[in-house]
């Protein structure tokens, strides 16, 4: 019966690592291209066949948050709780910052009409976005290691001290 809890914990880890994998993929293959020379380099997101990367993000975040919440509830009285709670809290903070800064700034930059010229102010904004996004990725990558390390802890209940 306890096995389902470990499976849910592993699925939470997998989902969280999928978030990180998606971010790493974008930072290695997509971001370096569009930050090079906006608005000319933004063509990959525009037109009838533009990339719609948000489809992945809109789907993976709610799944990951739900798995975190369920896993935290299941392991609340366990020594694993802190390994779930801290990454979950950090992830929630990162998502809050993402919704306040990263998404609006990205949408504003990507919404710039195509032009063959390069806008130096857009290049600067894009590079700042990229740098801050690397920092954001580093935080959640470290959190994922902490989450995964929780799988190595015994599932025993925490002992209450008097």
Task: Describe the model.
With 162 residues, the protein is mainly alpha-helical. It has one domain (3-152). The protein contains four helices and no strands. The radius of gyration is 19 Å and the shape is elongated. 19% of the residues are buried. The mean pLDDT is 94.
Count the strands? 0
Low-confidence stretches: none
Report the end-to-end length measured between terminal Cα atoms.
30 Å
Major sheet, described briefly?
none
Compute the gyration radius: what is it?
A: 19 Å
The percent of residues in helical segments reads 55-70%
Averaged pLDDT, please? 94
Helix and strand content put the structural class at mainly alpha
The total number of structural domains is 1
Tally of helical segments: 4
Give the helices and strands as they follow along the chain. HHHH
How large a portion of the residues is in β-strands, by DSSP E? under 5%
What coarse outline follows from CA principal-axis ratios? Answer: elongated
